[in-house]
Amino acid sequence: MSPSAKPRAGNEGTAAPTESVRDRILNTARDLFYKEGARAVGVDTVVARSGVAKTSLYRWFPSKDALIVAVLEQEQKDRWAGWDRTAAQSDPEPRARLRAHLNGIARFVSSSHFRGCPFMNITVEFADPQHPARVLATEEMQELRRRLRGLVDNIEGVSSPEELTEQLLLLVDGAFSSAQALGKSGPQQFLVAAADALIDAQLKK
To answer: How far is CA 97 from CA 17, 55, 110, 118, 156, in A?
Structure first.
């Protein structure tokens, strides 16, 4: 997540030609929410950092909750676009493709700007299971589970695809969580090896 530009407040004319006012607001909020937390960052801060008028923000996002959801939707879009690129560029052999995805996750969580999974962060910030941001975050975790299951189903000889999927999901969640505290020295460096061990155990049953 790259740092957003910080033009002077109220000067919407400074936006880059290819960046709309909506994009400026969204990109600024995305950066701030990720670094400081969606609850901690107020609308006034987003307005000041993005350099747009508050009326412009509310024109595009009628509430802070709507802005948070829009940020998560963009995170979601970018995450699965990256996932699909990895799939397209990887060896099509099922285990090799799974390793490619896990290697990508390990690299991502080891990067200097990583501050946790944005969807897991939201579930911590918003306890109400009916909050629209938490609902979207839960759906995102379900989508990760679904995609992992699709990879597992293509590995021939797995005795319990459901069990292996849940084990892999646990590994990925652990990588997201531990890397936030331990950084590059976290156990994510063993993510692929741990997955291979779980798969081998399934193939021997």
So the answer is: 39, 47, 20, 24, 13
Structure tokens, 123? 């579930």
DSSP for 36-66, written as a single string: H-TTTS-HHHHHHHHT--HHHHHHH-SSHHH
**What Å distances lie between residue 76 and 36, 48, 58, 195, 198, CA to CA?**
19, 26, 22, 24, 28
17-54, pLDDT tens digit by residue? 467 999 999 999 999 999 999 999 999 999 999 999 99
| Tens-place pLDDT, residues 94-139 | 999 999 999 999 999 999 899 999 999 999 999 999 999 999 999 9
Q: Could you tell me the two tokens for 15?
A: 């936006």
* 169 phi and psi angles, rounded to 5 deg: -60, -40
Cα separations (Å) of 156 from 51, 94, 159?
A: 54, 9, 9
For residue 127, what are its two tokens?
């306890």
Helix (H) or strand (E) holding 70: helix 64-89
